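Slide 14.
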Amino acid sequence: MTSARRKRAITVLSGLGLLLLPVLFAVFPLLSLFQQNQSEIELGVLWWPLGLCVATAAVVYGLFLLGFRSATKAAAMASLVAVAFFYYGVVGGWVGLSDRWFLPLWGVLFLGALVVLVRTRRELGNLALIAGAAAVVLVAGPLARIGVYQANHPELSASDPRLWPDQLAQPAPQGSAPRRDVYVIVPDDYARLDVLKRYFHYPDARFVHQLKQRGFVISEQARSPYSDSEMNIAAAVNMDYLGGLASILGTKSQDVRPVRRLIADNRASRLLTSLGYRYVHLDTDEVTFPAGNPDVSSASVPDSLTNLWLQKSVLRVLGGPIGFNEAARDERFRKSVRTGFSKLVAVSGEPGPKFVLFHTLLPHDPYVFGPQGQSVDFPYHSDQALGARVGLPYYVRQLRFVNRKLLEAVDAILAHSKTPPVIVIQSDEGFQADAETFGEAATQQIRVKGLEALYLPGGRGPLVPDPPNTVNTLRFVFNRYFGTHYRLLRSASYPELDFPYQFEEMRVK
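Slide 15: predicted structure.
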């Protein structure tokens, strides 16, 4: 290699090395946020925003390199842009100033530092070296913790025999009878009728009347096994309690990722697949998906990694399509809800047989819908207010809206089905009340009492599962339509304690 070529190669390698400087500064807030929440989200959720960070830093670095022909200056300026953009909310939180005051201060500091870098004629090698060492130290911590956690927490599958105390027999084909589609529709935190009457002074009479007119039966005493959405849905579609997770992972484990895996890949869908059924998994957000919902943008999901990450960036002060202020986030969420229900209606027209699991976060907060679907802004800015008395009217209005969407979906399903389908409308659990407002004991009771309405055509015998626990619903459906003889399980409920698998049975009143 000639001296000129060697010099060019060294220059290229030096430039690529300096590119790491803005990349490391850009990815640190994301890696830190993921590491803090990795017991709840899969590693696969990290790749898209991580790629966005790297690409953004590389483009900014490339633009500065073209403009100034200095790799060290380009790296320093791109790093400054990364810090100004991605660290805005983090530093603002430390300072404790509102965006109204902090944004202009942040802008002045950024522009001032940028002007200094542009105008300086000094070599920036030492600055780049110090900044690079700091960036490596920043990133090394969360990277190491992520690696260790992933290595120590292998995946679990619904087929793992350690999970379930009994193995469910395969359902039998029912002769020449047409196979009915099975829909499990899960509105989130939909309170049971007696709870709505007692605490909300709202009897939900019109919705109940409309359901009964369509042939639904309401389970008056239905309750859930747990006080957590994902655990209740996982228990329902796997037709059993989740005590096996406690035995495998330990009662003090914080790793709840397997719960979502048991929703995406569950025993009910596996058993029905043997009869030729297709599993259709829909959600208006990401609650039931382990590694992101393929049908919904992560930016539309209130508590997604992407949303929480970009809320810490400068985008938190912007509205519109690229913004992440409260109005922009709420509008994206409204769109995802409407899109999700549209997909459910569209699926009803597809050929079967199919087993459809559909979850919507409504009527759970954020409270963004009025009863007619109009946009609503919740005026209180604390999690406590959501479940307190000031939040109850907003919950009811959003519940009335989801009632309309549920009835529209039911009507579409019934209209599109050549053979009357099985439809289960089953809340994951009841309302998440504020313990300081209602008392700890009442809060626990309210939490495990949710809606259950069943459309079960063409059968005889009991109309609702007994014991009336949502863990038994699909066992009841299988026994009724698929020739199984599954034992209905004893009804039990476990309140939310310090650890997710710390199961201590409560007495339900």
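Speaker note: The first helix runs from residue 3 to 37.
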